[in-house]
Amino acid sequence: MKSKKITSIALLTAGLMLGSTSLALAEDATPAPVSSPSAYQTQLAAYKVALLQYQFAKVNADINYRTEVQKFNSDWAVTIAAFQSAQAAFEAKKQPIQEVRRATVNAASAAFLAATTGTPTDAVIKTALTAYWTATKAANTAYETAITALGAGPVKPVKPAAPVKPVDPTKPVAPVKPSK
Questions:
Q1: Residue 179 lies in a domain
Q2: Rounded CA gap, 99 and 83, in Å?
Q3: Collapsed DSSP state (helix, strand, coil) of residue 76
Q4: Which of 55, 75, 95, 143 ranks highest by number of CB atoms within 10 Å?
Q5: How far, in Å, CA of 114 to CA of 106, rounded?
Q6: d(C-alpha 100, C-alpha 94), whole Å
Q7: Residue 113's domain spans which residues?
């Protein structure tokens, strides 16, 4: 029983001593002077600003892209109908030119076959080939010239391109603490 009293008195005394010293230390403690920000602190502050700007740019680009895609999708029916009608008109303009070319090449083919029926001589084959090549070359050149004169065909609508992701800011490296 005596040891319990001694232990409780020792604990009470130790608690009072620790409590009074912490109060004394708290009263004597003065705030440490604030030093100017280090280079790391400056870089860290700049990084935080750049990170905020990066996040803003990323969200802003995403919103703008989604808006463009929604507009593209809503206008798609009208845009594709206009493209299809323009494409059909362009093909209608090309059809007579293609028929003339096809008729010219078919006539050259028929003339070649007619000239080479039976057992033709080498001179006849050479003359028939030259005539065939000349006729097809003339037909192809006339076709290409006529198609070029029509102008460029209609261009299919293109989906908006995804935005370019902004560049992540680089986080500054904390200074190395000297070892003791």
A1: no
A2: 24
A3: helix
A4: 143
A5: 12
A6: 10
A7: 39-167
- Number of folded domains that form the chain: 1
Contact 163, 59 (CB under 8 A): no
Q: What is the DSSP letter of 116?
A: T
Look-up of token digits 């892209």: 65
Give the separation between CA 14 and CA 148, rounded to whole angstroms.
104
Residue the block writes with tokens 């030119």: 97
User: What is the spatial distance between Cα 163 and Cα 61, in angstroms, rounded to a whole number?
Assistant: 6
Question: What b/e readout covers 102-133, taking b as 16+ CB neighbours within 10 angstroms?
Answer: eebbeebeeebeebeeeeeeeeeeeebeeebe
Do the domain assignments include residue 144? yes
- Tens-level pLDDT at each residue, the chain (180 residues): 566 565 556 555 555 555 555 444 445 444 444 455 688 888 888 899 989 999 998 899 889 888 888 888 888 888 888 999 999 999 999 999 999 999 999 999 999 999 989 888 899 999 999 999 999 999 999 999 999 999 888 888 887 777 777 777 787 777 777 776
Contact predicate 58/162, CB 8 Å: no
Q: What's the confidence (pLDDT) of residue 28?
A: 47
- Does residue 138 belong to any structural domain of this protein? yes
**Two structure tokens written together for 144:** 């290409």
